Each structure stands twice: as structure tokens, then as C-alpha cells.
Amino acid sequence: MRKSLIITLIAGAMAMLGVASCSKNVYDEETHRQLIKYFSAVDSVDQQHEWKLSEFKSYRYQVPSGNYQQLRIYSANPLTSSKAELMHQIFVSGNQSGVLSVDVPYQITTLYAAIVDASGNLTVTSFPASQASTETFDFTSATTGKAVTSALQTYTYLFEENYPEPGDYDYNDVVLRVSQQRTAVNQITVTVTLSAVGAAKQIAGCIRLVGYSYDTVDSVYTTTGVTFNDGINDQTLYPFGDIFSDKTVAHSLLMKGRNQEAVLNLFCDAHWAMAFNLDADYGLFTRKKYNVIDPNSDSYNTDTYQTRATRTLSYVVTFKNDDYTISRLDNFTLNDIDPFIITYYNGGNWETHVEQFKSAKVLANYSVASFKDLPWALMVPTGDFRYPLEGNEMGYRKRVESGAVAMIGAYTTTGHSFGEWAEDHTRFLDWYLYLTNASMVY
């Protein structure tokens, strides 16, 4: 593409996007598509891509007779493996039957079902993750014992800050680790860890409970009594005035979405949420980039970058005791959680979701492109995913004039690379397990 055409394209796209928030009629999607394509880190993107690395599965169960209280699904044998993650938990009784759902990473081929008695003993059986929903767990040859310590199934959500403009594809502008657990018959607990803020501008963050009405929630509180917004100056809310105009709403843990869905208010300002210790900044709040640069590198400058401890909060969501909502909670998984960020751009608020929910428009109204290129948000089905350092791409893959493929980035192992997955959504689904260059990740 000639330089003059590139300049014209960029200028035209920015002009179109710049007024998109004011009038949908002037948004030119084709110009937007060309601009994104020019800056893309890959040659082509599979237009069927949903950028999913897991699938929502339903399984049928039959609890044997006895004094059983819970049914759990694990990623490995909880009696023998310290790496077993608790993927789902529901409350049951002896002889109960039904269906429960799990969000299963494609790389997991065997699951473990455990029924728990009043003494905390687990009776465990295994079954293939591909098992049909018409089949039932078989506990006849199960093993009984005490569980070793297991963690909750946790996914990592990685965001680019500059939607609708092109990203730099380091996916570290906001990094969240999210898990959920059924903690009572009418209650779930959502745990959120804010791991990194590599953004330059103010960003708000929320979680939509997909398909759950605001009116079905009885209460929300954090287990520690603190929030990510504690102590925040209300003047910092002005970029999101049409969302947080009511200061009571801004400091509430529960918000009502535009379509009446329940929304957890995580933070109004990611930098504030991460920089909770003002002593580290001599009592002044300044925006820096947290946990995105190696502190031993030549690029580390404390005026711009800092290393901070991650922050974790658990949100206890109690639902009203209507039978329909309670029965639905048996199928509540990470698939029902929609973490998203909100950024301010040219007079309007824009939400950034993973591809599955990119058109949700939960709290703001904005233009959503229908074309596919690298997304502004990714979900990786592991809680310890090592995200790129500032300025490093997840995976660059383009062909040079000779036809040879150039791959640069953190996850570029041939046959297991991010770029190959971008080109074919049905293959290379294990790319996140193949770190190519450890010096490029945090």
C-alpha cells in the first residue's frame, strides 16, 4: 500500500470513528476494517473466529442413595492431584438426579465427578469430557477419600485499551484473573484478581452476570468489606459521567445494565484500584503502568512503571429465593460471566468485551464492527497465563515478499502459535501452553 494511501486511510478512519459515538450514520465500517487490517499483527483472520478456548458442556448425573450434600466437577482427580481445579459445585441430596453444566477448556479430555458427604469425604469417578449429555455419571466403581487442596477454576482475561482504534496486541492494558464458585443454594462467589494495568488512560471495569436480571439479586458484598473503589476521589469519575453520574451508583457493587441485567461494579479507575498504597507515590496519585515491565530491565523507569502486588477481591452474590433462579444456578459457570472494561473516546464511552459478548452494550451504546480481526480482549482458560510485557506482541505472523512466514512474539511456536490459531479457529487451540520466549512475558 502506498504511503499516501495509508495516510489517507488512517486519517479517514479516525475521522469516521471520531464521530461514531455522536451519530451512527457517519460510521464507515469498511474504512474501519481497512485501518484495522493495516495495523493487524496477522495476515488473515478466520472470519468464523469466536476466540474461544473452552466450551460450555452439560452433563447428566444421578446421586446414589446416602447422606450426600454436594456434587463437584474437577479438572483432575482431587484425591491424588494437587493440580485439580474445582470447576463446578452444586448442592444435592441422595437419589437426586439432574443436569449440571461446566465450562471445559478444549485441552481437558477427562473430568472427575465427586459427591461429598456430611463428613467431607469425596466419592470420585472419572468420565470423558466429550461424554454425551444423554449419558449419566457412573459412581459404581468410584473411589472414596479426602480431597487434597485444590484451587478454583480460573480464567485470565486480557484487554487492549484503545477500542475502536487499532491495538498494539500486547494484551496487558488490563489483566484480570476470574473464578466463580457456588457457595450456597442461592449464592455464588466471584473472585477477581487485578494482575496488571498497562494502560495509559483511565479504565473502568465491570462483570455482567449474563442473563441474570438485576431484580433477581438480593445483595452483593465483598468478603473483606473493601472494594477497588475505596477512597477514590469522585472527580475521577467524570470521563464516565453518563454511567457513574450518580455517585451512589459509582460506589455500589451492583449496577443495572441497559437491558436490566445484573452488573458487578469492579472499579471506576483501574490505576486507582492497583495503586491502593499511596505511600509508594509519596501520597500522590499518578497514573503509571503496573506489572508490565521487568524491574531489572533497562526500560524500567519508576516515573512510568511500577511493580505492585496483585489485588484480589471476592464478591458474594446472593440471589432471591425463587425456584427458577435457584435451578438456573446449577448451570452457572464461567461462561455466564462477562468481564469487560469501559474506556472514554471522543465524547463517548466504549465497552471492550471478549468476542462472544462484543455486542452486549451493557452500560454504554457504541458502534460494533461486524468484521473479524484480532480482538481487543482475550480469554485464556488458565489462571497463571503469562501475558506479554509492554511492547511485546502475543504473536505476530505475516508473510514477507518471498512468501516466507515471519513470526515474532511470546507465543510463536510453529504448530502451536497464536498467529496460526488466528488464521484457523479449529486448530492450534493449545497455543497458550507453548511459551516461546520467556523474556517477552511477565
What does this structure look like?
The chain has 442 residues and is mainly β. The protein folds into 4 domains: 3-39, no CATH class; 55-152, Immunoglobulin-like (Sandwich), CATH 2.60.40; 154-380, no CATH class; 396-440, no CATH class. It is 12% helix and 33% strand. It has helices spanning 3-18, 29-39, 241-244, 247-250, 270-274, 323-329, 418-423; strands spanning 54-62, 68-74, 85-91, 97-105, 110-117, 122-128, 143-145, 151-152, 154-159, 174-184, 187-196, 204-213, 217-222, 254-256, 261-267, 289-290, 305-306, 311-319, 337-345, 348-352, 377-380, 396-399, 405-408. The strands form 6 sheets. A 6-stranded mixed beta sheet has the order 7-6-5-2-3-8, with no helix packed on it. Strand 19 (337-345) and strand 20 form a beta hairpin. Helix 1 (3-18) packs across helix 2. The longest helix is centred in the N-terminal third of the chain and has 16 residues, at 3-18. The two termini are 35 Å apart. This is LruC domain-containing protein. Keywords: Signal.
Short descriptors:
442 residues, mainly beta, Immunoglobulin-like, 4 domains, 6-stranded mixed β-sheet, 6-stranded antiparallel β-sheet, 7 helices, globular, disordered N terminus, LruC_dom
Q: What's the helix and strand layout?
A:
Blueprint: H1 3-18, H2 29-39, E1 54-62, E2 68-74, E3 85-91, E4 97-105, E5 110-117, E6 122-128, E7 143-145, E8 151-152, E9 154-159, E10 174-184, E11 187-196, E12 204-213, E13 217-222, H3 241-244, H4 247-250, E14 254-256, E15 261-267, H5 270-274, E16 289-290, E17 305-306, E18 311-319, H6 323-329, E19 337-345, E20 348-352, E21 377-380, E22 396-399, E23 405-408, H7 418-423
Parallel strand pairs: 3-8, 16-17
Antiparallel strand pairs: 1-4, 2-3, 2-5, 5-6, 6-7, 9-10, 9-21, 10-11, 11-18, 12-15, 12-19, 13-18, 14-15, 19-20, 22-23
Helix pairs in contact: 1-2
